Amino acid sequence: MAYARKVFDQIPDPPNIALWNAMFKGYAQNESYREVLVLFSNMKGLDVMPNCFTFPIVLKSCGKINAYVEGQEVQCVAIKGGFRANPFVGTTLIDMYAGGGAVIQAYKVFGEMVERNVVAWTSMISGYILCCNMVSARHLFDLAPERDVVLWNTMVSGYIELGDMVAARKLFDEMPNRDVMSWNTVLNGYANNGDVEACERLFEEMPERNIFSWNGLIGGYARNGKFFEVMETFKRMLIEGNVLPNDATLVIALSACSRLGALDLGKWVHAYAESNGYKGNLYIENALIDMYAKCGIIENAVDVFKSMGRKDLITWNTIINGIAMHGHGSDALNLFCEMKNAGETPDGITFIGILCACTHMGLVEDGFSYFQSMVDDYSIVPQIEHYGCMVDLFARAGLLDRAIEFVRKMPMEADAVIWAALLGACRIYKNIKLAEVALDQLIKLEPKNPSNFVMLSNIYGDLGRWKDVARLKVAMRDTGLRKLPGCSLIEVNNSVVEFYSLDERHSEREEIYGALRGLTKSLRSFEYLPDLMELEQGG
Q1: Nearest Cα to 388, choosing from 421, 353, 347?
Q2: Are 26 and 1 in contact (CB under 8 A)?
Q3: What is the Cα Rg of the chain in Å?
Q4: Contact 350, 339 (CB under 8 A)
Q5: What is the mean pLDDT of residues 424-444?
Q6: Which pTM was predicted?
Q7: Within 10 Å of residue 249's Cβ, how many Cβ atoms?
Q8: Minimum mean pLDDT among 2-6, 70-74, 500-504: which range?
Q9: Half-sphere exposure of 398 (CA within 13 A, CB side)
Q10: How far apart are CA 11 and CA 231, in angstroms?
Q11: Run of H or E residues at 180
Q12: What is the mean pLDDT of residues 427-448?
């Protein structure tokens, strides 16, 4: 745009309106909305008359930067120029006012329009939906003389945004001509409102599916924590072959691999992405760093990071947090320095990784210094996660008194994660008094979590206080709660298999327990004796 502006300013004769409009459009496409308004002011000063293509661009720019006073001035210019009845100008005015919450002013413009086409009706109805006024939106919808598929989809989307899937589905079923976008709208509605079963049923009913249909179902599974289903649907998509995955699909699949620890499948997605034109895609590369880090192959994550031509804040945050999570604190801190040298400004997520790195290295004072820098140098308001990192930093270093003092000075109440960190540190440093305080708080916050009783029971057991162990077991039994058994996920034959401790339901339990007995026998031959009391208490 800088070059375009230089050429524009050097035109010897006054530019015609087409050239002005080209400049307005260029600035708007580059999101330089303030420059659009400045240039429009310059144009008025030269007495150049705008046309019907000028006003929509300028009014839309006013809406983008909430410049509603300037928008009213532009409206006055449009009226004086004889564009009051122009449907393009009127529709853009409706969008601008409705976007700013001035729905009454938007309706006034709508009422003054001589020629109200379906686009104008859609804009006005969208304005009411934006202001959560579904009654007025539906009233206008019922009055609309013409309804195209966009208007129908807009109304259905309005119900979905308010969480009323019953009304959305009823209106969807009444649609005379439903395109794939209509089906996708309802599909995403079910997914976003947590009704995965309805989402699945609708997907199977669809007469036609495109990439957004598949991403809607796969993304719905991911948002609702059904990562096994994400992988199965992704495989089905590849097998059917009618629609190929795009970068959004691959990012969701990699996210599921991260959550399931499905390293082999994640590597396959990596190879698929590179061989199908997605090498260098920022979103996929960020997801790959996350996947490799969470699957335990931090070296691969670093290799992806180093090979990237372009990095954004998410890239830096992902690698710093991944390396810190693996205990490579000094490397994480070095990357933080590289990040700042590269001109990237850290955010709250960055500092979670930095504080985590300090925790792994036992750098108490450095961690506290970074915490202060976050507030003083970057004006970041600490969240509960940052306070949790600091409490964990003090607690792991054995500074339990300083940790509890920090908790008392926090501007918000400590959550279960913070008290659990303190309880875990109490076991290491044999602090029964603080452990009992932490358990009392955890019972208030998580009355149905038996793991907290188990943790304190382990502390009593370490100190040989068996009466207290028995007392806690009775208390846990009286709650009627049972600790969830340990769960493991492993990859076998390109699938992720889930099984539980003492699992009798698995179809191959005989083979599994046979292998386990063989491993136990081998361990004993090396004189390894497991801590059975610990295993029993830990679940």
Answers
A1: 421
A2: yes
A3: 30
A4: yes
A5: 87
A6: 0.79
A7: 22
A8: 500-504
A9: 3
A10: 58
A11: helix 180-192
A12: 86
- Report the length, in residues, of the chain: 539
DSSP string, 98-129: HHTT-HHHHHHHHHH-SS--HHHHHHHHHHHH
**343-358 pLDDT, tens per residue?**
999 999 999 999 999 9
Query: Kindly report the CA angle at 427 between 421 and 433, in degrees rounded to 5?
Result: 90
For residues 114-132, one letter each, b for 16 or more C-beta atoms within 10 angstroms of the residue's C-beta and e for the rest, the string is eebeebbbbbbbbbbbbbe
CA distance 96 to 105: 10
Measured at the CA of 385, the angle between CA 380 and CA 387, to 5 degrees, comes to 80
Residues 231 and 266 sit within 8 Å (Cβ to Cβ):
no
The CA-based angle 47-53-59, given to 5 degrees, is 85
Q: Please say whether the beta carbons of 24 and 17 come within 8 A.
A: no
Burial of 494 (0-12, 13-18, 19+ CB in 10 A): exposed
Q: How confident is the model at residue 481 (pLDDT cuts 50, 70, 90)?
A: low
Count the Cβ atoms, other than its own, within 10 Å of residue 322. 23
Could you give the CA distance from residue 312 to residue 343 in angstroms, rounded to a whole number?
10
pLDDT tens track for 375-421: 999 999 999 999 999 999 999 999 999 999 999 999 999 999 999 89
Structure tokens at 14: 């006054």
**3 state SS of 344:** coil
State the Cα–Cα distance between residues 454 and 483, nearest whole angstrom.
8
* Cβ atoms of 209 and 180 closer than 8 Å: yes
Q: Maximum Cα–Cα distance for the chain, whole Å? A: 97
Instruction: Look at residues 209, 222, 218 and name the one whose alpha carbon lies nearest to residue 181.
Output: 209
Q: Return d(Cα 69, Cα 316) in angstroms, integer.
A: 40
In 427-444, which positions are buried (b, 16+ CB within 10 angstroms) versus exposed (e)? beeebbebbebbbebbbe
- Ranked by mean pLDDT, which of 107-111, 377-381, 492-496 comes out on top? 377-381
Q: Look up residue 525 and give its two tokens.
A: 């031959």
Six-digit token string for 222:
């991911």
The more confident residue out of 105 and 491 is 105
Question: 256-271 burial, b if ≥16 CB within 10 A, otherwise e?
Answer: bbbbbbbbebbbebbe
The predicted structure's pLDDT at residue 479: 67
| CA angle in degrees (0–180, nearest 5) for 238-239-242 | 70
Closest CA to 342 of 322, 326, 373, 319: 319
**pLDDT for position 189:** 95
